[in-house]
Design goal:
The structure is a single chain. By secondary structure, the chain is mainly alpha-helical. α1 runs antiparallel to α3 and α3 crosses α4. 83% of the residues lie in helices and 0% in strands.
């Protein structure tokens, strides 16, 4: 198994656990209010959420300087399942996805600094 496939599998396991937690613990009434409030920018949010769900494994691989295997059926499957999972989570917990996106970007930035500038 290639390193990028390990990252994809690890992300999908984490993302499923995140989706389960969002399903059980998110406040759906507040989420519906938030979606009503976001009507004007809902398409931009759908695109942002799609990018988070589908491209996070590739982003993690890039920050860790691991080559991404584009012809991997596992990576393609994780991309598609990540899209579907992120759209499902949007129905339950938009705020949770926004928080996850911030965490992924911050840890990615820290990882990039560690790998590229410090030289681990």
């Amino acid at each position: 198994m290639h390193a990028s496939e390990v990252i994809s599998l690890s992300w999908m396991i984490f993302f499923f656990l995140f989706a389960i937690a969002a399903y059980f613990f998110a406040d759906r009434d507040r989420n519906n209010d938030r979606i009503e409030w976001m009507k004007a920018v809902i398409f931009a949010n759908i695109i942002a959420i799609s990018i988070l769900g589908a491209l996070t494994p590739e982003f993690i691989a890039y920050t860790l300087d691991i080559p991404w295997r584009t012809n991997s059926s596992l990576n393609t499957t994780v991309t598609i399942v990540g899209l579907i999972t992120s759209w499902a989570i949007m129905q339950w917990a938009v705020e949770w996805l926004a928080g996850l996106a911030v965490v992924v970007l911050l840890t990615g930035a820290i990882s990039w600094i560690a790998v590229h500038l410090i030289g681990f």
